[in-house]
Amino acid sequence: MTKRAFITGITGMVGSHLADYLLKNTDWEIYGLCRWRSPLDNIDHLLSRINNKDRIQLVYGDLRDYISIHEAVVTARPDYVFHLAAQSYPKTSFDSPLDTLETNIQGTANVLEALRKNKIKAITHVCASSEVFGRVSKEKLPIDEECTFHPASPYAISKVGTDLLGRHYAEAYDMQVMTTRMFTHTGPRRGDVFAESTFAKQIAMIEAGLIPPVVKTGNLNSLRTFADVRDAVRAYYMLVTVNPVAGAYYNIGGTYTCSIREMLDTLLSMSSVKDIQVETEQERLRPIDADLQVPNTTKFKAVTGWKPEIPFEQTMRDLLNYWREQVQRKKSFLIR
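RE: above sequence
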């Protein structure tokens, strides 16, 4: 019998790339959870298949509404669950902490409870975040799974709850739930509120003559290890199909580490405009930042054999080209 996958947040960057990966590399039926008001830009290329129910269809619901999640789970009856949906912007969480906590913690509980109440024995991936580790001292780098949580934003706090809920349901209810802490991952379709994506977007707008040749930035000193979103979704597929271990929790991430400033310099080097200036804007700074995000991914690699394949430069080039295409299609954007 054909397997069925349930992806929450299918309209996001990661969810849409995961749908692409599963359509190409499996014969699974895919059910994607989205809200009625969710923009469909990231799955625009899949809409004809969705309309024809060609191995993929949408189910509507909201993480904060248990009834809608219950109905979505009953409809999907999944063999595999990828819980990716979240309020995922750390800086936004400082302005909307309660919305972030409710969406990410209660929303995760709703998904897991719907699976439990309906006795659905799905292999389930709960997506936490490397932000749970927060402010880590240099002595603890690279960060392994047992590093102490020290969250540095309401978003990070919400992901601590998400992480612990996943493990709790595995231990308390004998459910096959696994939790990941994915470190920085990016590429085409990345939301423009994230550093590398807003930089690429601004560069594309500068090249098109839509804004002056100045890139506005926040904190450029943070250290990040970058992975490509397409490597990330392959990791998620391997998580649920290669030696899945109930209650396991893994760090996943790339191998290329640099500062935000060095990442920006890479993007600037790819631009056709060579005199772009850089300015820090106070409003782009977080009140507190997780500034050392370097993972130890030995555990996950040992269990699954996964390793990243897409070079950092290709990821940045593809991200910049994505925004160039967006700018060509649409000339008016919110500058952020």
